[in-house]
Amino acid sequence: NKSTNEICNDEKCAVIFIDTDLMNPSIIALNFIKSILQEGSIIILDDYFAYKGDSSKGTSGALKHFLQNNPEVILREYYKYGHGGISFVVERI
Fold first, then answer.
1. What value does the mean pLDDT of the chain take?
2. What is the DSSP letter of 10?
3. Which conformational region is residue 68 in: left (phi greater than 0), alpha (psi within -120 to 50 degrees), or beta?
């Protein structure tokens, strides 16, 4: 498997859209994008409020897990959209 930096030619991202719905694929996606995040990057997470808003499941649980394991990453809520989507801006990495 190629690393994120190999695929992205060591460039940083401006916007990332993750639509995986389930916790494990969301964790994989978040870990995959970590090396290309920069201050000001926007992460859009679809279905963030799925599972009746249970923050231990789905994309919400994945983000919680990711942030616990990467305390240097600070996100700030940016906007909510649609039925259950949310976005965050990377404040610090």
1. 92
2. T
3. alpha
Distance CA 56, CA 92 (A): 24
Rounded Cα–Cα distance for residues 80 and 77 (Å)? 8
What residue has token string 């964790």? Answer: 27
- Mind listing the pLDDT tens digit for each residue in 10-34? 789 999 999 998 999 999 999 999 9
Q: Which of 33, 46, 51 is nearest to 90 (CA)?
A: 33
C-alpha to C-alpha distance for 21 and 2, rounded to whole angstroms? 24
User: What single-letter amino acid sits at 2?
Assistant: K
4-92 CATH, one of 3.40.30.10, 3.30.870.10, 3.30.565.10, 3.40.50.150: 3.40.50.150
Taking the C-alpha atoms of residue 93 and residue 91, their distance in angstroms, rounded to an integer, is 7
